[in-house]
Amino acid sequence: MQRLRLRLRRTPPPPTGTRTLIVGAGAAGRTLARDLMRNPEYGLTLLGHLDDDARKRRVNRLPVLGPLSALADTVRAERIDVVVVAIPSMPPVELAALVREAVRSGARVRYLPSFHAAVQRDSRGGDLMAVAPAALLGRDEVHVVRPTTRATVRDRRVLVTGAGGSIGSELCRQIRSYGPSALYMLDHDESNLHSLQLEISGAALLDTDELLVADIRDRSRMRQIFAELRPQVVFHAAAHKHLPLLERHPCEGVKSNVLGTQHLVDAAVEHGTERFILISTDKAAAPTSVLGATKRLAELIVASRAGGRTAVGSVRFGNVLGSRGSFLHVLAHQIAAHEPVTITDPDVDRFFMTVEEAVGLVLEAGAMAEDGETFVLDMGQPVRIVSLVESYAAQVGATDVDIRFTGLRPGEKLNEALFSDSEDRTPTAHPRISATLGPALPDDFEDGLHALYAAAEANAAQEVRARLTRVVPEYTPPALAVPAASGLFDAPYPDGF
């Protein structure tokens, strides 16, 4: 196993000048402001506070710009980038309303810990420190949601599947602020739904029609939901997405990523949904993994439903910085715990984007999709993982990072692509988004799907891999499968399979 030790000079990066407003001028707000001003490496430019106490005019040399009710006006007037909520005791309903107001005004929101956490550890700037995305991406963030795009969901009944996940929850947050007539949030995990409703509504009684506990594998349940709720716009984010797990469990990947997608898009077409958008991955371009192959097949299924009343399309993007279970999430944990950072290969690179960029792309695609296109954001050049570790370590002040190289796992690529060699890349109405149309499907495509589903239902992993190569011709699996364990897996498939 190769190893690399990074020794970084403790030189703070240049400030990014992120214009910041602190909500609250009490003890927590004062402590926070003092700490942030002492640490310019956070890259924040503090503009002032908001507080309902009219007697407070200036705190730590920062002005109190008005009461909390002046949030929207202050964000616009001062061109605020980030609003930091420093009132740990704020009731959840008021906090949710404040967050929605900040987002509508164009600002991001950060929080201090909850009251109990603040008692256990001082409310300090370290609790809020967020890495500047541009420094890790190697480019500026792309803000793709145009005002006209928001009309796609305004006054519409919108359904988001996988609503409790990283992309699904951000979709729900943004869509909710654009004024849909109804927002239905579907997930098979009730805990995810509970957390999501608490965050965006300020309460989580779990007794409203907007929450749907359901499994996309259940065809009759999906048809029931569409028949009763008649969603006009659907964003399908539910999926199995962890590549190594799907290499070991390919049948589960087919059941969720392929069959589940077909259940949804067929129900959408049957019940007159206006728009259906699939969330895909760059691993679907020239796939070498079960994850990539199943998502590519999902793209093909969605595209095959084009031509009717329902506009359909897919969105393909790379790794999302900060999403649950993402590399950055693991990296932050490893560095904070002073553990070795694990990377597969010194030369591995990936395309990265922020969750805001990803959701912006999804919403833009929702507005542009017509004929089953797959949309891809221009994400600049891929980022070497080693470089990302170096940038992150520098921003958080980690001066001694131990990197261990573990080797590529089955199905993983050294370098990802956004389009395969057989796909034509065409421009769209948005200058930073390109699109491609899938190939004409063979006459026996549906027969191949049925055979694949039968193999998955029988939990025949070997046969599922074989049938994936037939319905997704560009899929080139690794030469050998993951070794069997405990008798639960088929034997490795032969070279050249």
Task: Summarize the entry for a quick read.
The chain is an alpha/beta fold and 497 residues long.
Describe the structure in your own words.
- The chain has 497 residues and is of the alpha/beta class.
- It has two domains: 16-130, Rossmann fold; 147-436, Rossmann fold (3-Layer(aba) Sandwich).
- It contains 17 helices and 22 strands.
- The chain has helices at 27-38, 71-78, 92-104, 115-120, 133-137, 147-150, 166-177, 190-201, 219-229, 243-248, 250-270, 290-304, 327-336, 355-368, 385-396, 445-457, 461-471, and strands spanning 2-7, 18-23, 44-50, 58-59, 62-63, 82-85, 108-111, 157-161, 182-187, 211-213, 233-236, 275-279, 311-316, 319-321, 341-343, 349-350, 352-354, 371-377, 383-384, 400-405, 426-427, 433-436.
- The strands form six sheets. A nine-stranded mixed β-sheet has the order 10-9-8-11-12-13-18-22-21, with helices on both faces. It has a four-stranded parallel β-sheet with strand order 3-2-6-7, with helices on both faces. The chain has a three-stranded mixed β-sheet with strand order 1-20-15.
- Helix 3 packs across helix 8.
- The longest helix has 21 residues, at 250-270.
- The model is unreliable at 10-15, 113-130 and 480-497 (pLDDT under 50).
